[in-house]
């Protein structure tokens, strides 16, 4: 009951020690999104230290898969602004990193890695769940341990 006032004012909820990831599929074949969800739901999530959250307000990392489309760009920006700081941007898969099979055109902007600075970029079409786990583990050991983002 004491925390009820936090919800009324719209304050950000505190993050736990786990790496809380808000995942967005921004356009493409969804192969990378399927691999990511398979790795998280399959129990390979480092004993609970990596988990998907349902809202950007609970997340410390915004993880994008798929090419950035014109329609999704403002949605990604709103999710990024809704995250409490410090926040991290990650791109998983060739499409998210550099556009992959979906180069810039009238409907796509290419990869998010060409438009914003990402803290974690993992190429692959799609990257294997083991590669996603290794990249998140390496990033968390390197940057997440000391709080530097």
Which helices and strands, and how do they pair?
Layout: H1 4-9, E1 19-25, H2 31-41, E2 50-52, E3 61-65, E4 68-69, H3 73-82, E5 88-92, H4 94-98, E6 108-110, E7 120-122, H5 129-144
Parallel strand pairs: 1-2, 1-3, 3-5, 5-7
Antiparallel strand pairs: 4-6
Explain this structure.
This protein has 149 residues and is α/β, with parallel strands linked by helices. Helices cover 32% and strands 19% of the residues. The chain has helices spanning 4-9, 31-41, 73-82, 94-98, 129-144, and strands at residues 19-25, 50-52, 61-65, 68-69, 88-92, 108-110, 120-122. The chain has a five-stranded parallel sheet, sandwiched between helices. It has a two-stranded antiparallel sheet with strand order 4-6. Helix 2 (31-41) links the parallel strand 1 (19-25) and strand 2 (50-52). Helix 2 (31-41) packs across helix 5 (129-144). The longest helix has 16 residues, at 129-144. The model is unreliable at 1-16 (pLDDT under 50).
């Amino acid at each position: 009951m004491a925390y009820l006032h936090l919800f009324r004012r719209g304050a950000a909820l505190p993050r736990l020690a786990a790496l809380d990831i808000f995942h967005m599929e921004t356009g493409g074949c969804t192969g990378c999104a399927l691999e990511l969800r398979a790795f998280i739901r399959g129990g390979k999530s480092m004993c609970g230290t990596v988990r998907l959250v349902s809202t950007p307000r609970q997340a410390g990392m915004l993880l994008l898969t798929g090419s950035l489309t014109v329609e999704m760009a403002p949605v990604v920006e709103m999710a990024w602004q809704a995250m409490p700081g410090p926040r991290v941007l990650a791109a998983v898969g060739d499409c998210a990193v550099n556009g992959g099979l979906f180069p810039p055109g009238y409907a796509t902007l290419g990869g998010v890695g060409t438009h914003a600075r990402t803290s974690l970029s993992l190429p692959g079409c799609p990257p294997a769940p083991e590669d996603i786990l290794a990249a998140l583990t390496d990033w968390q050991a390197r940057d997440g341990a000391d709080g530097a983002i």
